[in-house]
């Protein structure tokens, strides 16, 4: 039996409450609804009612929706939140990103918009059985870390060869398979063709460190739902799984090309550690061009992701962090990360 989902509607508009209630009924899921028209009660419900899914208006009496979510996040509450506003408020959108909201809906929106989000939550919160197939243990560990960083609730199994993958597929069902294209013995393309005979409903995502248009086309034509180039990010996994499962992709996103780094600024040194590979990039920064000087790379041992693949994005990330810390002159800096609503 599917567990019940606790859904909160927080909006002082009766029309919006009714629209979201209709969307909840149309979802035909075991939903338990809570409805409030003010931010103070919204925060109380978030903190104490084990809310799974919430639609929260930015502007409400007593406490704003963003303040309620901010307070809940500080308490460790990880509710799947969609913020709403009318008219469009760019600053609220930027804050929603910081608050790790799933989506931002601008009023007026339709019941189908809300229904898509409800169904997305139901799929994301259900187990997603993932098989990672790669002959390299290091790569499998890296891919597993990326997959587990996705919003999907992934249960991961690994295989070190195409033959092992097929053996597993004979006894276990998989929702998604991340399959290396180049492997000794049975390569990725041959593995995928036999795998799809065993499990036609499995979504195969081909992965490779090499860029080869012919291989990519062959993989897609043979049934792969996507082709990802190593190294890829948890956001890339989110994107391809949304598409693979026919889910409504969130319009709310921060478009930036950098992989995730831990960044520290110590005096005139800025240090970046790439979370997936372990490579460390260090620069001396200056408030005048060139902003980054005397770059030093400290490679992680036994990592198959080359530091050169990450050097340019490490520099962009460093510049972004220095700009955010107001250490560079705005007029002389080209901000490489843009917040936007993608349609």
Intertermini distance: 36 Å
**Poorly predicted spans:** 254-258, 330-343
Overall CATH architecture of the largest domain? 3-Layer(aba) Sandwich
Helix content: 25-40%
Reading off the top of the CATH hierarchy, the class of the largest domain is best stated as: Alpha Beta
- The oligomeric state of the chains shown is single chain
Number of helices: 11
Q: Strand content of the residues, in percent?
A: 25-35%
Strand order of the largest sheet: 2-1-3-4-5
Main pleated-sheet profile = 5 strands, parallel
Describe the fold and architecture.
Helix 1 (14-26) packs across helix 5 and helix 2 (39-48) runs parallel beside helix 3. The protein is built from eleven helices and 16 strands. Mean pLDDT is 87; it is low at 254-258 and 330-343. With 343 residues, the chain is α/β, with parallel strands linked by helices. The longest helix has 15 residues, at 111-125. The strands form four sheets. Strands 2-1-3-4-5 form a five-stranded parallel sheet, with helices on both faces. A five-stranded parallel sheet has the order 7-6-8-9-10, sandwiched between helices. It folds into three domains: 5-124, Rossmann fold, CATH 3.40.50; 126-252, Rossmann fold (3-Layer(aba) Sandwich); 261-335, no CATH class.
């Amino acid at each position: 039996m599917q567990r019940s989902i606790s859904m909160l509607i927080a909006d002082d508009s009766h029309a919006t409450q009714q629209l979201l209630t209709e969307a909840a009924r149309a979802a035909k899921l075991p939903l338990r609804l809570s409805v409030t028209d003010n931010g103070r009660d919204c925060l109380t419900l978030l903190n104490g009612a084990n809310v799974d899914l919430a639609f929260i208006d930015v502007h409400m009496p007593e406490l704003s929706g963003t303040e309620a979510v901010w307070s809940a996040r500080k308490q460790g509450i990880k509710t799947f939140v969609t913020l709403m506003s009318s008219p469009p408020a760019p600053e609220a959108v930027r804050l929603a990103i910081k608050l790790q909201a799933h989506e931002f809906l601008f009023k007026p929106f339709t019941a189908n918009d809300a229904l898509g989000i409800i169904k997305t939550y139901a799929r994301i919160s259900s187990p997603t059985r993932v098989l990672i197939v790669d002959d390299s243990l290091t790569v499998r560990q890296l891919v597993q870390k990326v997959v587990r960083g996705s919003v999907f609730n992934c249960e991961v199994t690994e295989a070190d060869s195409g033959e092992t993958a097929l053996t597993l597929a004979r006894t276990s069902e998989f929702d998604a398979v991340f399959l290396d294209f180049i492997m000794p013995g049975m390569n990725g393309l041959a593995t995928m063709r036999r795998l799809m005979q065993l499990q036609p409903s499995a979504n195969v995502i081909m992965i490779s460190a090499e860029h080869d248009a012919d291989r990519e086309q062959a993989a897609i034509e043979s049934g792969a739902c996507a082709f990802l180039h190593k190294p890829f990010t948890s956001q890339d996994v989110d994107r391809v799984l949304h598409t693979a499962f026919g889910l409504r992709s969130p319009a709310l996103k921060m478009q930036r090309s950098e992989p995730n780094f831990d960044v520290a600024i110590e005096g005139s040194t800025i240090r970046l550690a790439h979370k997936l590979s372990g490579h460390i990039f260090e620069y001396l920064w200056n408030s005048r061009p060139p902003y980054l000087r005397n770059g030093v790379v400290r490679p992680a041992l036994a990592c198959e992701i080359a530091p050169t693949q990450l050097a340019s994005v490490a520099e962009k990330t460093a510049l972004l962090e220095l700009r955010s810390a107001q250490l560079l002159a705005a007029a002389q800096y080209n901000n490489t990360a843009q917040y936007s609503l993608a349609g």
